[in-house]
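We give this protein:

***
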Amino acid sequence: MGYTSTEKLEDKLKKIKRLERFQNRQSLNTASNSVPSSTAEPMDVESPFEEVSCQQVSLNQFPFASFTVDKNFSCITCEPCASPLDSGDGRDELLKRQAIYFNQKCVQLIKEKKEIEEELQKASFTVMNLSKKELKFYTGVRSWSIFHWIVRIVSGGDQFPTVCKKLKPDDKVLMILMKLRLGLQNKDLAYRFGVTEDQVNKIIKKGVKVMAKALRFLIVWHDKEATIRNMPKVLKRSISYQKTRVIIDCSEIFIKRPTNLLARNITCSNYKHQNTMKFLVGITPCGAVSFLSKCWGGRVSDKETTLNSGFLDHLEYGDQVMADRDFLIKEELIGRGASLVIPAFTKGKNQLKGTEVISSRKIANLRIHVERAIGRMKFYKILNSTWDLKLVESANDILLVVAALVNLQPPLVK
């Protein structure tokens, strides 16, 4: 009718609270009237339930008895004896039983917690839950001893990434090797290991750099005596190629198209017809990677890559270098006292001579081992995928780690 109430909201709330207190007192009086007055004697200890409502609590979960307590934790009745425990000895006995029960319950809960933690540990993706077969699939490492040796070498320094303290060094190395072996996305690795994608980015970026520095010693340019001593039987039978010191070849990695026009021009490969990075690989006659160049733009020729990579500085007088027809470095090798072994050229010839056919076939059969070594490197799928431009800055470190892992495998040629 247009009238406004002058009663404030605070006054209404006070009335509601008074009504609730009145109802609580009514229920308390009703409950106390149903219990003998001799059983309402409070205990001498301070009650831990002072802030709890005044309603009676029924503790029927005890194995020794079923009883009820009031607000002040004074015993009302005890079943099955159904006799009041108002004496001091009775209350002490009941408290002892309660202490025994709660101790047993605590031990049981601790045991259940431990079991749950073990189940969660088994369900999580960690090194401890992998079998030997799974380890080889995820990392390319063929045994647990080699894996733990890698972890010990890599995590021994202070530069190993400490981004995520949740993961152990074993799991961080596993994450990095899975990135190299399977070429997984960082978001996939974050889901597997239960961390954020940003943490995965930092672990891989810094971890690959540390691993490259730690495993660099596995790529060794062997001296001439060691090379001859470990010469495989295939080359020992060939008198013409017994002085072969190294077999070289180039390979390429696909990258996304750069936005910078100069970078786009440098990385445009005439052979692959796509933007690539090129690197030079040199192996010993037995198949171990002994030389690995830095990455160059895909437009660079094989000859320029070889001359600018520092490869010629390792050669000695009398060495033989076996390569493909694209490596036109004969004059540069002669200047260092070395020789070049390549298949015969077919350009401008209707037919090769018989001796040229036989020598070209032998060279092809021996040179195929460098292709097999590069194939071992391409077993790590990151080298087969198209790289994001952010990953290009770590290209040299990734190549070095992959080549070092390949050298940990059994000999390629016996």
